[in-house]
Task: structure prediction
Amino acid sequence: MAAIYSGIYLKLKSAKTSWEDKLKLARFAWISHQCVLPNKEQVLLDWVSHALVSYYNKKPELEDEVVEKLWAYLDNVIHSKRLQNLLKSGKTIGLSFSIAQVINERLSEACSQKTQQNIGTVLSCSSGILSTPSLSIIYTAKCELLVDLLSKLSKLACQQLASDNAVGSQLFSVLQLTFAQYLLIQRQQTNPNRVFGQVSSHLLQPCLLLRHLLTVRSWTQADNSHVRQHLSREIRNQVETLLQAGLFPPELFSSYKEELLPEQELQEKKKGALKSLLLPVKTVQTKLGSGFCEPALHGAVVAGSVSLLYKLFLDAYCKAENHLVCFHMLGRLFGCLRLSGLQQGMREDTLFPMDWSVELLALEQLLNLVLSSDIYNVASDRIRHKEVQFGFYRRLAQMLLGHSQASIPAWFRCLKLLMSLNHLIVEPDLDDLVASTWVDAKASEPRTKKPQEALISTMFHTYSKLRQFPRLFEEVLTVLCRPAADELRLPIFSVGLTVKLRECLLELPPNQILDILCLFVEKCQTLIIPALEGSADTALKLLSVSSVLHAFLFNMRSLDDVTSSPVVFRTQSLLAKMQKGIIQPLMELLQAPRRKEKSDLWLRKASDSALLLVYTWVEVDTLFGVSCSKYVSPTAEMAGAVTEPAARHWGISAFLPGVDEQCWERVMELANSFASTSKYCLELLTLQKMKMILMQTKADLQALQHAAAFILESGRSSMSRGESEPWDEDISTICDLTYPTAHWHLVISNLTILLPYISLEDVEYIANVLLETLVLAKAQEAATDQESAISIGNVSLGLMHSTFLPEMKVLHCAFLTSLIRQFAGVLPAAVRDSADLPLQQLSAGSIPWHEEILAPFRAVDLLEAPSENKLLKDELSLPWKTLQKVAQCIVLLAQNGCPVVLKESQLENCLGLLEIASLLKLDSLLPSDCTRCFLVLLSLLANTKASVSCSKQLLMKFLSTCFHLLRCLQAGRNASSVFKVFHASDVLEIVMTSQFRASKFFTDVLTVPVWAQYLQEVQAFLENFLQMIIERRQSVRLNLEKFMSFLVSCKPDMGAAKSKGGKNWNPAAGQLLLMAFTTLCHVVTLYLQQLPEKKLQSADVLSALLEPVVLQMVRTVEHGLQSNSPNQPLPVAFIPSVTTLLKADLSHAVRKGWQKEPSGFLEQPRIKLYQKFYSQILRELPCAGSNLQFLQSALQFLTVFCSVPELYPGKETAIMVVFAIKKLLTGPAITTQVIHSMEEELTEVLIQLLGNCSAEEFYTIMRMVLQGLEMRNVWQQKAKEVLSAVTLTKLLLSCPLSGDKEKAFWFASPQIITALAMQTKEACQDQSLISTIVVPILETVAALLRQGEGVLLNPHHVSLAFGILLTVPLDHVKTEEYRSVFLGVHEVLFSIVQCHPKVLLKAAPSFLNSFHRLVVSVMHEGRQKGDRGNTDDFEVILKCAHLVERMYTHIAAEMEDFTVFSAFIVAQYVTELQKVTLHPAVKKHLTEGIYHILDLCIERDIKFLNVSLPAGVREVFKDLYNDYNHYHKAKKQGEEKYTA
Result:
């Protein structure tokens, strides 16, 4: 041994030995047990450390490859299990400090060379050293080395983040570990000045740059997901913790205070005190100002860092007495921003738009912190500190308003924050504020519009509360009267601002509103109207002022009988002044003939203003007249001047005094020439006229018809152009492109008023436009960016979705006609003009389709007008004759087999029209319309086919949509009207013939999801239609026999000559045929089962029909199976068919009295078919994976098959089926989601199996389950075996057991629950098994405890459940798993509480511990965070909090014996509450729950808690108890007062 020792050691030391040999010897020595060196591990570590240190000290010259191998050797040794085991056993092994210096130097080289290619091994070494306590001492004992390492790693991370390369995880994992180590050391440091020096000198700059780059990086899929999702957030949090503890410890506050407070303040606070030598603020400012990164990044890094540092400063020092210090810190940090230079005369153009955005965002964050921390006290600042804060904010406001940045959202937000601090900050510049942020601001983008509206809303609410609203709008008027910047001045009131204005106007005194209105009217009358003619600028001012008057008058509180008389008289005076001083002069100005000037801007805007004011005046005058009896309208005062014809014909004089008819005609002519506000206001005025006529006792029908026709005609030309843009609902901004939208919105919104008075031609016009706009709706929706704007398409869609359209039956009918005409227009040009085709006949204009609607309203006296009555009956019968003719035409065309060929584009158009048809309420159609719609859909199915080049999936989607709409029609109350024009069997034949023809295209797409959906739709239609036939009870046998004989005659071949061996079999047609047989069989069987015994005659009729159906079905299935190759799986479509077949056989057999002997009714070949299917399904079941469609169908078949044990082939028993299910559950593709999806079917199978199996078979099944729960499965990584056993246990609990089977199960239940407890303990050690094993175990235990009420008598067995609950982890669980784990634990607890209360009392500590873990987890997950993240995740937390509240309530209400633990429960709750800040919604639930526990606490408990709780927790308890007394106890006592 000595030879081995001396040889290796000498060779390692020898200069003659090559480095390759030395490394080989070192590796051998480390791993070999034959080499016995005294303190071998330390010797080898020292050797490699010395070799590396010597190399970096430039002593030996080594090749790069050798150096890399030395690093690799060191890395292997550090990470070896051998070293870890030795250290665990207590052996002392260490590294020299020099190796830490070498690592730092190597990382420093990588930083300077900006290459990170060969440092992976070094990083791995440092990771191993830091994660091993006995090795990490080389860093922790010398803090300078750790600081240096952290600085270098941060710089390396910054380089990697700044590059375009993908981010790896190694560097960031080491960085996170280093941060954790440093934070640990930092907390142990006793000298805060030293820590400040370390952080500010070495860590501040790299940490701030690192945080910035982590925040702004655009992460990609190429970046490591762990870094992207977890480490980046963790490192940002560590940076903040490091800076908080390093820069702002409590001990340094005096230094900050001395440096920040002015001399006089310091002398007042601390006379004669010596100034500290440490200048922390200056140090931080210097570090921020120096160039520690690229110039392009520097500004953004500083801007992002300033708000962080201020937040950390406030978190550390912000108390009421320190607010002045906090403010001065704000000033110093603001000085680090480039914005501060603008106050000192720096040129604005030195900041680029991107710089402005970053700087303003930083300023916004600073001001937000000031506002939220309540640093600025207006009174204190004015009285004690000579308005030092006010002056600072005032300069900020001047700087912001002097450098308008209306394109940047943060600019508006900064001004809003300044206004929220104190409105006097911006008051001196109120006119500039109104101009630059509102009237003249070009903020049209949604991202800037929102903060702009928030700022203006703050202005509204501030001046409203101060009762200075007139002062604000005086400035608005001043700005409006300045020359407009350009024609495109944005509107004064958007929709959002109008809502805010309304809120304020409802709170203001009426006289203040009238003051504003009088001010605007007076300014308009004296300044604007006289200078209007020929001046575009004045016209723009007039329009702005008019829109303000409109907004105020429409949104102020209406006059009523409670309004004081002076306010009413003042309002009357205002309206009279408005009418005489503004409207009348405008009318006189506009009536002058100006044909050449019609295109002039001033004339257009003047016309818009005039009509807007007229409409506003009329609307408001009418409203006040209706709502206030004291109000006297100016129209009433001038009633004598109104001429008799004007009053009779509802001329303008009846609404607006002082305007004669001729003048109004000329103004109307001018307004109609502009597609703008004025034209829209004319329509509104006409609508107002209709409303006023309808309010009279006797309405003028002719006037109503003229008015309705005028409104529709007004926009007809604009609508026909087809050019429109979305409209923001602002009446003053309507232009050529938004007018069609506004007009259509007005028409559709008021259809209930207009429709009774418009002609049938106009109804058809509305229907045509409605359809055209719906066709274009999707494209228009995509083009609409504005959230609040409305488009023509949206208006039309809104009508289609409303409940009003079905009530407007004439329009409904006209729309259907228009839709059918559109379908006809899609057809190829060759057949489009043929008047004999169904679609052309169904949309013919000569047929009075609407007569069925209008006939009941036409009063025709039978005695006086018999000829008219006969004519009416003829008209009524004409549509039905046409429908019968079309039905016959469809039958003939289907029989002839010459369908119209549609190209793919035509098919897409048809599909689009079908989607529009689906918006109609098809179940509310009248009989004739219902039949017409049915014929259209049938014609599309039977008389069209796709071209060969057409997409097969598109064709299937088209057919599926047709069948879906047919089903919608069948759900309507008039569905049976179809039988007036069709024999039921004809419809079925037409449908199936067309589908057999179409199926030739589908032979190669039978596996795509669209095929399954298509089959489902066809089946649903057939099922509904057959049920209708049976329920009508008219020619049932005849129709069904005809349909059956048709199906029997069908041969699902490929259309070529027949060949032997089924080679020509068309699988798509075969599946369709089988589906038709299955549906027929299913409907008849179901009907037979539901028939009462009295109706045996009809039962016999249907039973006789069922037999040939079953026989033919068997043949079809067998043929289909023959065409299926032996190794292929069963076609999914066949399984429901065979299930239905078996159900029909068994149903018929039971009726015939057969019970036990299958051969009594079932033929031997048929039994063999079922047995063959059964065997095939058992073979395929374990291999089905997650194919839910197959699994559900197969399990449904097994349920029916296993209900008759005599059908089992040979000596097979129920055990074979259970074994197959077990194999299925252990399959690799089976997840808990798949199990939940088929749980119902699995339960049904097991109910049949266990109900019919023998006791011995049941014992075998139980042994199978218990074997699956053995521990060896989880040790052998067979998690799926455990999952299958747990699932089978849960399913067994869902089955009704009796007799020996029940005894056997409950006899094994202690073994089951013990096994589940052990499995849980093992599974909880592997995070991946939480959702796979632990959650199903919790669900099974909860079910076991519920079912075991009164059966599980041994308390020990129940208390084992607590062992499971205390093992399950509730922290560090993924959010998606948290809900299921929490619910599982809660359900087990609730099962014990409800079903085993006696056990609960004996195991109270276990229960309280388990429940407290739930409470703690909810508090942890529900703590308040800056960004709540996913809303769905938060909803989960809320639900969990609600369950905790429910448990608290249940404990308080039901468990009286738990009163002794109430104080303990409260103490646990407040101790945990003190550690977190809960989200208000979560806290509400938990607080409500704990209040119920406090109800159980007696006075002695409260005193005990007040004395025994620690200081911080005691404060939390006091707050809780005060709230309890104030809110809960008072309410409870109030309720008890009225309780008997």
Remarks:
- The mean pLDDT is 83.
- The chain has 73 helices and two strands.
- Residues 232 and 1207 are 64 Å apart (CA to CA).
